[in-house]
Amino acid sequence: MRSARRPVSRVRTVVTRHAAAPRRHQRVMRLGNMTAVIAYAREQVGRRYVSGGEGASGFDCSGLTQQAYARAGIRLPHSSGAQAARARRISRSQARPGDLVVGPGHVGIYMGNGMMIDAGNHRTGVVYRKLYSGLAVERL
Q: Taking the model in full, what pTM does it have?
C-alpha cells in the first residue's frame, strides 16, 4: 500500500532592486516638461510685481521662475542668485524656450525668438518682452 505523501511546496523569495533612472534620462524628462514652464509663465503676464511674491498676490522675479519650474517638477530656491548658481551658462544661439535668463539680481524665462517673460519691477509687473542686453541665458 502506498503512503499518502503530501507534495512539498517550496517558496522562493525574489528580491528585485529598482535602480534610479540615470541622470541623462531624468534630464530628458525635465526638458520635455518645459511646455508646462512656458504655459505657466504666459498665464502670469499682467500680474503685479510684489517683492518676495510667489503667486497669490503677485511675483518678484525669482518667485515667478520658482513657481513656473515647479510645474515641471523642478524645485528652485526663491533667489535669483541661487537659481543662477544651479544652472550653466549657454550661448544665446543655443537658447531654448524654458531656459533661465539671468542678470545681476534678476532672473526670467526665455520664451524663444529673442523674447522673455519676467517680473521686472513695481512699474512693469510680469511682462513679455525682448531679451535685453546684460542678460545671460542659462540652462538647468
A: 0.77
* Nearest C-alpha neighbor of 109 from the set 52, 59, 58, 62: 62
Provide the pairing of β-strand 100-103 with 54-55: unpaired
d(CA 68, CA 98): 9
pLDDT tens, 51-78? Answer: 999 988 999 999 999 999 999 999 999 9
User: Annotated active-site positions, please?
Assistant: 61, 106, 118
Give the whole-angstrom CA distance, residue 22 versus residue 48. Answer: 40
Which grid coordinates are listed for 79? 533667489
Quote the radius of gyration of the chain (alpha carbons, Å). 24
Which of 92, 98, 89, 140 lies closest to 117 in space, CA to CA? 98
Closest by Cα among 89, 124, 122 to 103: 89
How do residues 88-102 score in pLDDT, each as one tens digit?
Answer: 999 999 999 999 999
